[in-house]
Amino acid sequence: MSENWLQMAILRQYTKAFLRRFVKFEMKSDKTTLAMDVEKQELLSHRPYSDIPGPKPIPLLGNTWRFLPFLGDFDIRAVDKLSRKLHDQYGDIVKIEGLLGRPDMVFVYDADEIERIFRREEKMPHRPSMPSLDYYKHVLRKDFFQDNPGVIAVHGESWYKFRSKVQQVMLQPRTARMYIGAIEEASIAFLHRIAKIRDKKHEVPNDFLNELHKWSLESIARVALDVRLGCFDDNADAGTQRLIDALITFFKNVPVLELKIPFWKIFNTPTWQQYVNSLDTIVSTISKYTDSALLRAKNNMDSDKELSLLERVLALEGDTKVASILALDLFLVGVDTTSTTVASVLYQLALHPEKQMLAYEEICNVLPQIDTSLEAINIDNLKYLRACIKETLRMYPVVLGNGRSTTSDTIIGGYHVPKGVHVVFQHCVISNLEKYFPRCHEFLPERWLGEDKVRHRFASLPFGYGRRMCLGRRFAELEIIIVISKILQFYKVEYHYEKLEYYVNPMYTPKGPLKLRFIER
Length: 521
Prior knowledge:
Blueprint: H1 2-45, H2 79-90, E1 93-96, E2 105-108, H3 111-119, H4 131-140, H5 142-145, H6 156-170, H7 173-177, H8 180-197, H9 208-225, H10 238-259, H11 270-299, H12 309-317, H13 320-351, H14 353-366, H15 376-380, H16 383-395, E3 402-405, E4 410-412, E5 415-417, E6 422-425, H17 427-430, H18 473-490, E7 491-494, E8 502-504, E9 508-510, E10 517-520
Parallel strand pairs: 2-6
Antiparallel strand pairs: 1-2, 3-6, 4-5, 7-10, 8-9
Helix pairs in contact: 6-12, 8-9, 8-18, 9-13, 10-11, 11-13, 12-13, 13-16, 13-18, 14-16
């Protein structure tokens, strides 16, 4: 009797387990079917792509004529104003079709739509391509890049493989914090440079932004390669300035090659030749630095010194090419962006002395002794200064937007957008809209503090988001907050001239000489 009872009990348990698994499978299948049905229903209930508002193309030249000098009404040197104009005229979604040699572009100004696109991001999302850089890496200089073209202007499997190899080193906050000392050393060298170049009015020269480029280059070299370039030395290597000039030329020529009629695909235009020459200079210069760093790393394998990023990737992957291409990408996109951000933050703090004073008081509380070396806990406690940086990047993001290239038909803003369209998120406009940031035209770092904080986290994304978020973000943020905290420790920053407008040159930066005054405290 008891044996039969036991057998019946076991049978009931197995039956229950089977039913649970069956029901779970059915529910999962139902959910999958439901998701597919919803997606199909969305595609069926959409408005057609042709209904998306935007400037009308003309026969043969499409909308490309709008970017032509004298004839066109789109000025690529004032993309910020153009983007605002398109939003005011057409609304939260705008289509620019008929671009010769390029896919259509759809501009999105709705933070909810941007969040929805990011939340649905696939394993290997595509950014809007840069045909010029793609051609340089995969055709013109294929012998150099081989199977490791890096992450910039690269998509698909090759991007995924490279990103997977380096992101463990690049995106962990604890890794970035290991380089606080190296970044602080470069920042202190910059403080000495400021003291040296000021005039009798304590004012820096008109080319102060170039000095910031040198600081950024020096910082990246310390972190990525553990090398001191000596950018601020009296006998500084002329190669460092050639590298800075090449980086600026590269960025200035990108919009010309990407938005205007792509004659460079047919013959060697002067702009294309400048572009290639600048990239060749960047590649050869950085290769020289990385080769020296690799040789030094090989000869000092037992050293107790903190490893550079190059050495960390090399230790992890054992591939010198991967380590070298990562260093190249960091220099390619990390110098101008970081230095321009610092320039913009200093300028905004000079325009708003009351905010600068609050940041300075916070620094004094966190670092009462000015000769105390920075530690991670100190940086974590500089909350108001961090808010000043976020607010500057909200109002004046150094890169005006980012986006994705659709890899399948999708619905955006109620419209059917086909595969292959470049969807651009216009953050420079979005982050300056009243519906997302009340009193949006005021410099209010306080909006990033307290419980309310930001109304929509996807309305300001200076470093991007998701799988293709800026790979060097952790290091850039450290560099920016460290150098500004050191400057404010020693100097009060002032500006005594007419207020500057912002423009793209090649980053979004104040237009005109940044004649800041640095007054000792």
